[in-house]
Amino acid sequence: MDFIYTEEQRMLADSLRRLVDQSWTYAQRRARQATGKLDAKAWGALAELGVLGLTISQDFGGFGEVPASLLPVHVELGRGLVSEPVIPSAVMGAALIDACDDAARGRWLPDIASGESIVSVAYQEPGRRYDTAPQDCRAAKTAEGWRLNGAKHLVWHGAAATTWLVSARGPDGQTLLLAVPAGTAGVDVTDTPTLDGARCARLDLDGVTLPADALLAEGGVADHALEQALRWGTAALCSHAAGAMERLLEITVEYLKTRKQFGQPLASFQALQHRLAEMLVAKELALSMAYVAVAALTETDAVQARRMIASAKLEAARAGRQVAQLAVQLHGGMGMTDELDVGDYFKRLTIVDQLLGDTAEQLAVLQELS
């Protein structure tokens, strides 16, 4: 694995850091969270910089970058706690559609790359934790196309999506992937804020009628597409977490250099230096495993790729908890308030474990593959 950015990756990361520093300040981030709505200007800025079409083929309006480019981009987004639906739409949604046929790619990928379409993968069902196989959400064939019934929950940025990519159980028990436009009759959307200031939604689907061309994939192709979406999303999330840890460590160092006790900066106390060292080691381990995760996206051995992704996600969750908890402790009483950035980073790094398969889920995968 090459741990050094290419010149193009470095330039993109530098440009993105400048954008994030200008447009995702503490006040701006909080203002967006208060509305609970997607900021069209911020979303457009990400599209203009190429973030949304990063790995989408140039044939479909993207930039055609290699999967490794996810790392520098999502590290920077993690540093700024960018909560826009980049991972659900531009990573997971694009990866899912890319695993479908050319008709689906041509129809959806250009609009995803431009930011005109926001998609979200709706695959989790109530009471089934992280199981990816649809069971209670079912699609029946009709003369005009499909009729969809069931429920999906924890749809990441589901209310902001213009289209949901819904997994359903077909007439013969096979997996179907269907594109459901927002506003379709029979879809009830319940939007909910999450711990970290992002959003998720529950979709209740009652007799939703769809045309025949709503079908994106079925059977083994659909299973593979969904697996690919989750693998790419997890790799991006690991990079996002590493970036958040990096920035939180910087914030904590700045605080300890400024805050004084007994006439000396807190950073001069050896015991606190040890805690900072622990944070640094944890952050570096998480960053190293983020490289492993993006490397898994080009791994030809499917079993090894699953092992790499699960291991990286485990480390992102573990290191995230450690760095976040130590940061709060080192900020003392101020770390428990809602007035500092540290609290926002703590919440984001806490929720990383729950997204796309928690620690127990990743351990189960590793046990299965051992």
From TrEMBL:
Keywords, comma-separated and alphabetical: FAD, Flavoprotein, Oxidoreductase
Cofactor(s) needed by this chain: FAD
Domain annotation Acyl-CoA oxidase/dehydrogenase middle: ranges: 122-206
Record InterPro entries: Acyl-CoA_Oxase/DH_mid-dom, Acyl-CoA_Oxase/DH_mid-dom_sf, AcylCo_DH-like_C, AcylCo_DH/oxidase_C, AcylCoA_DH/ox_N, AcylCoA_DH/ox_N_sf, AcylCoA_DH/oxidase_NM_dom_sf
Annotated TM spans: none
Domain Acyl-CoA dehydrogenase/oxidase C-terminal: from-to ranges: 227-363
Keyword check for Oxidoreductase: yes
Boundaries of every Acyl-CoA dehydrogenase/oxidase N-terminal domain copy: 6-116
SUPFAM superfamilies, per database record: Acyl-CoA dehydrogenase C-terminal domain-like, Acyl-CoA dehydrogenase NM domain-like
Segments forming a coiled coil: none
Protein name: Acyl-CoA dehydrogenase
